[in-house]
């Protein structure tokens, strides 16, 4: 029983650490060359940050904090 609890505890710890350091889907640290900012700005409900949508030449959407 102690081994099972240890494994579950370790899995929870790994999940928490990953959620802190891994970026959310589509979120980028900085715009890449060729990306174009759009007029679309929204408040991320999870982090409460104001985010701007950027598009890349292939039509992909990327979300960066609006400064």
Describe the structure.
With 67 residues, this protein is of the alpha+beta class. It has one domain (2-65). Helices cover 30% and strands 28% of the residues. The protein is built from 1 helix and 3 strands; from the N terminus they run αβββ. It has one helix at 2-21; strands at residues 36-43, 50-55, 61-65. A 3-stranded antiparallel sheet has the order 1-2-3, with no helix packed on it. β1 (36-43) and β2 form a beta hairpin. The protein is elongated, with a radius of gyration of 17 Å.
Q: Residue share in helices?
A: 25-40%
What coarse outline follows from CA principal-axis ratios? elongated
The strand count comes to 3
Order of helices and strands: HEEE
The residue ranges in which pLDDT falls below 50 over 5 or more consecutive positions are none
Largest sheet: 3 strands, antiparallel
Strand order of the largest sheet: 1-2-3
Short structural description:
The protein is α+β, with helices and mostly antiparallel strands and 67 residues long.
Characteristic terms for this protein:
alpha+beta; single chain; 28% strand; 67 residues
SSE blueprint and pairings:
Blueprint: H1 2-21, E1 36-43, E2 50-55, E3 61-65
Antiparallel strand pairs: 1-2, 2-3
